Amino acid sequence: MKKYDLVIVGAGPAGMTAAIYGVRANLSVLLLDKLAPGGQIINTNEIENYPGVGKLGGADLAMQMFEHCMELGVEFDYKTVNKIELLENNNKLIYTEEDEEVIEALTVIVATGTRSRTLNIKGEEEYKGSSISWCAICDGAKYRDKDVVIIGGGNSAVDEGTYLAGITNSLTIVTDFELTADPVSCDYIKSLDNVKVYTNKKVTEFIGDGEKLSGVKFVDKEDESKETIIETDGVFEYIGAIPSTEFIRSLGITEDHGYIEADERMKTSVPGLYGAGDCISKHLRQVVTATADGAIAAQEASAYIKDLKRNEN
What we know:
- The chain has helices at residues 13-24, 58-71, 124-127, 136-139, 155-165, 183-191, 287-312; strands at 2-9, 29-33, 75-78, 81-86, 92-96, 103-110, 114-116, 132-133, 147-151, 170-174, 195-198, 201-208, 213-220, 227-231, 234-237, 241-243, 273-275.
- It is α/β, with parallel strands linked by helices.
- The strands form 4 sheets. Strands 1, 2, 3, 4, 5, 6 and 17 form a 7-stranded mixed sheet that branches. A 5-stranded parallel sheet has the order 8-15-9-10-11.
- A hairpin with a 5-residue loop joins strand 4 and strand 5 (92-96).
- Helix 1 runs parallel beside helix 2 (58-71), helix 1 (13-24) runs parallel beside helix 7 (287-312) and helix 5 (155-165) packs parallel to helix 6 (183-191).
- Keywords: Disulfide bond, FAD, Flavoprotein, Oxidoreductase, Redox-active center.
- InterPro entries: FAD/NAD-bd_sf, FAD/NAD-binding_dom, Ferredoxin-NADP_redctase_2, Pyr_nucl-diS_OxRdtase_2_AS.
- Residues 4-294 form the FAD/NAD(P)-binding domain.
């Protein structure tokens, strides 16, 4: 059985930052992810709001972060964690799908992020990351003075839509029910001259030539023979996110929607177990807030381990 001071589950911005801070605190660190390092940012065409890097592709930023980890000697492995078990001494056992080897850790940081809910319709896979996005703050600027469509009617859709309406030529909101965001925000966005809202609609297809998205097709939910096609340069989907925390939900540290409940120091109710990044319950989910979470979590893990060793002596 391999033993580490710190095991980090998830190699997105939060996890990689935690690994950097953990190694620099002289901890033995293992970073695990079932996919390529980078998390959701590898699906983002361009990032322009991460300080110091200017405009950069999400995959490029992820690679720079990962190379930084490797330069510092972070141990990385492709593993799918499917269970974390707590021992009586508060150490943690980490189980993975790939093999029967169990990993033991004094501390664990869960930074597994979220996955966006998708429509699973024609054209979605083809245009995601280029013309279909899930982050207006990340990708909105490239649609300045262009036409965009938002799919969804909740707070995220309306809040991000308000931002997009201020920089785009036109904004079309398509939602399967009514707008469900707070009434003041809904009234405001509907009052904007360049915004049109379609309610009780079902999006059925993303249209394009294989390289460039050109339109969104949707039907009336009560009469699917009523079909509409809206021309657009880009689409933002806000139909919900799913935290990737299924493997720890038995530990009692997640809320009703599956997000980890962590305090301002990234601590959960389990000693030595921390959350970081998009998988925790929080207000703003951005690369910069994820890296901050990772740094805080690693510092707290280091302090926890120092206390353990001090008490042993």
